[in-house]
UniProtKB/TrEMBL annotation:
It comes from the Bacteria. The lineage of its organism: Bacteria, Bacillati, Actinomycetota, Actinomycetes, Mycobacteriales. The gene is nuoH. NDH-1 is composed of 14 different subunits. Subunits NuoA, H, J, K, L, M, N constitute the membrane sector of the complex. This is NADH-quinone oxidoreductase subunit H. PROSITE patterns: COMPLEX1_ND1_1 (PS00667), COMPLEX1_ND1_2 (PS00668). NDH-1 shuttles electrons from NADH, via FMN and iron-sulfur (Fe-S) centers, to quinones in the respiratory chain. The immediate electron acceptor for the enzyme in this species is believed to be ubiquinone. Couples the redox reaction to proton translocation (for every two electrons transferred, four hydrogen ions are translocated across the cytoplasmic membrane), and thus conserves the redox energy in a proton gradient. This subunit may bind ubiquinone.
Length: 446
C-alpha cells in the first residue's frame, strides 16, 4: 500500500521563541560537529597509520581543533593584488550559507513537548523537502567557482572548473538515487520518508540506490579520494590557494558542514532517520521522547567515520578516471535501477492481480538482456586493426591511450630496437620494388 502523506500542518504553528530556539540548536549542532569531526579525523587517521596524533593541546589533545580555529582567526587576512575584490570576499559566504540552510528540513526526532508546546524536532518541512536540499547544496558550488575565478590565478581557476564538473556529474546520479526513494515512499517530504520506514529501512529494499548515493556524496563534498578541486599535489591548493585567515576557515567549515548534511540526508533517506536500530527498537520507548536524537546522531557519526576511513585508505583518483566512473558507471546503473523500482511498484502495488513470480522472471530477463547488449556493444567498440609486419609497438601509451614516461629499463634498448625495425622496413621496401615493365628496359637487363 502507498504510505500515507505526512501531516505538514504541525509545521509553521510554533511560537517565535521556539522557532528561534530550533534554529539556534541546529546552528550550534552544525558548528560543534565539525570541530569534533576534525579532532576525530586526526585521531582516527593517526590510529590507522600507527601515529600518536594531536596530544599536546588540552587533555589528550581535545582542544586541538579550538586552537586551530583561534590560530586561523589571528592570522593576517591578505587580499592579493589583481583579484576581483567584491566577488573574492563574497565567495566564502556563498559556500558557507547554503551548507547551513540545507539542514533546515532534516528531522532530528518525533514530536515532543517543549515547555508545554507540542512540536516536531525539525525546523521545517515541505512537500518537496529533498528537492530543496538538492537545490540549496547546488548553490554552494557557486562559492567555489567564484573563488577560483576571482583569484586571478591559474591553479584556483582549474580547481573551480574541476569542482563544477564534479557537481554536474555526481548530482545526476544522486538525484536518480533519490528517485527510487520517492517511488517507494510516495512522498518527497523528509518526515514522510522517515514515516515510510517504520517497518523496514530503505537500505534493505534499495541497496543499489544507497551505494550509488554513498559514492555520490563523497564526490559531492570534494573529499578524498575525490578531492580533485583542491589537489595540493598538482594545483597547489586548488580553488582556495589565494585565501587565508578566516576566509580560508570558512571554506573548511563549509566542507565539514556539507559532510554532516549529506550524512544526515543519507540517514533520513535510507537508515530510518531518527528511528532506533534493530536490537534497540524492541524497547517501546526507543522511538519516543528525546531518545531518537541519540540514534540520529550515532548514524550521522557512522557516515562521518566512513569519510575519515576513505581518506586514510584510498589514494586520489586521476581526474579522467573519476569523471568516466560518474558518467559511464554510476549514471547508467542509477537509471537502470530506477526503471526496475518503477516496474516493481507498478506491477505489485498498482496492479495487485500480477503474481510476484511473473515480476521476478521479467526482471531477470531484463537484466540478462541488458548484460548481453552491453557485451555486444563492448565487442563492437574494440579496434579490429591488424599490426603490420615489423611494426614496433609504442610502449609509451598506457591503458586508455594516455602518454606516460618510458620505464628506465627500456630507455637503453628502445633506440636499438627502433633502428633495427627501420632497417628491416627499408630492406623490405627495396626488395619489393616492382620491376620495369617497358620493353626497352627489359632488353637492357643482363
Amino acid at each position: 500500500m502507498t504510505p500515507e502523506a505526512p501531516d505538514l500542518a504541525l509545521f509553521g504553528t510554533d511560537p517565535i521563541w521556539l522557532i528561534v530556539a530550533k534554529a539556534l540548536a541546529v546552528f550550534v549542532f552544525l558548528v560543534l560537529t565539525p570541530l569534533l569531526c576534525i579532532l576525530a579525523e586526526r585521531k582516527v587517521m593517526a590510529w590507522m597509520q600507527m601515529r600518536l596524533g594531536p596530544n599536546r593541546t588540552g587533555p589528550f589533545g581535545l582542544l586541538q581543533s579550538l586552537a586551530d580555529g583561534i590560530k586561523l582567526a589571528l592570522k593576517e587576512g591578505l587580499v592579493p593584488a589583481g583579484v576581483d575584490r567584491p566577488i573574492y570576499l563574497l565567495a566564502p559566504v556563498i559556500s558557507v550559507v547554503p551548507a547551513f540552510m540545507a539542514f533546515a528540513v532534516i528531522p532530528f526526532g518525533p514530536t515532543v513537548s517543549v515547555f508545554g508546546h507540542v512540536t516536531p524536532l525539525q525546523l521545517t518541512d515541505m512537500p518537496v523537502a529533498v528537492l530543496y536540499v538538492l537545490a540549496v547544496t547546488s548553490i554552494g558550488v557557486y562559492g567555489i567557482v567564484l573563488a577560483g575565478w576571482s583569484s586571478g590565478s591559474t591553479y584556483p581557476l582549474l580547481g573551480a572548473l574541476r569542482s563544477t564538473a564534479q557537481v554536474i556529474s555526481y548530482e545526476v546520479a544522486m538525484g536518480l538515487s533519490f528517485a527510487a526513494v520517492f517511488l517507494l515512499a510516495g512522498t518527497m517530504s523528509t518526515s514522510g520518508i522517515v514515516s515510510a520506514q517504520e517497518r523496514l529501512w530503505f537500505v534493505v529494499m534499495l541497496l543499489p540506490s544507497f551505494l550509488i548515493y554513498v559514492v555520490s556524496m563523497v564526490g559531492e563534498t570534494n573529499r578524498a579520494p575525490f578531492d580533485l578541486p583542491e589537489a595540493e599535489g598538482e594545483l597547489v591548493g586548488g580553488f582556495h590557494t589565494e585565501y587565508s585567515s578566516l576566509r580560508f576557515a570558512m571554506f573548511m567549515l563549509a566542507e565539514y558542514v556539507n559532510m554532516v548534511t549529506v550524512s544526515a540526508l543519507a540517514t533520513t533517506l535510507f537508515l530510518g532517520g531518527w528511528r532506533a536500530p534493530f536490537p534497540v527498537s524492541w524497547w517501546e520507548g526507543a522511538n519516543q521522547g528525546w531518545w531518537p536524537v541519540l540514534w540520529f546522531t550515532i548514524k550521522v557519526w557512522m557516515f562521518l567515520f566512513v569519510f575519515i576511513w576513505l581518506r586514510s585508505t584510498l589514494p586520489r583518483l586521476r581526474y579522467d578516471q573519476f569523471m568516466a566512473f560518474g558518467w559511464k558507471v554510476l549514471i547508467p546503473a542509477a537509471l537502470l535501477w530506477v526503471m526496475v523500482v518503477a516496474a516493481v511498484r507498478v506491477l505489485l502495488v498498482d496492479s495487485p492481480h500480477v503474481r510476484p513470480a511473473t515480476v521476478v522472471v521479467s526482471l531477470v530477463f531484463t537484466l540478462a538482456l541488458a548484460l548481453v547488449l552491453r557485451t555486444r556493444l563492448r565487442r563492437a567498440r574494440l579496434p579490429r586493426t591488424v599490426a603490420e609486419p615489423g611494426a614496433v609497438e609504442d610502449t609509451h601509451l598506457a591503458d586508455g591511450g594516455f602518454p606516460v614516461p618510458p620505464l628506465p629499463s627500456r630507455i637503453a634498448r628502445e633506440p636499438a630496437s627502433r633502428t633495427t625495425a627501420s632497417r628491416t622496413t627499408a630492406s623490405r621496401t627495396t626488395t619489393s620494388r616492382p620491376t620495369a615493365s617497358r620493353p626497352e628496359e627489359r632488353a637492357d637487363a643482363p
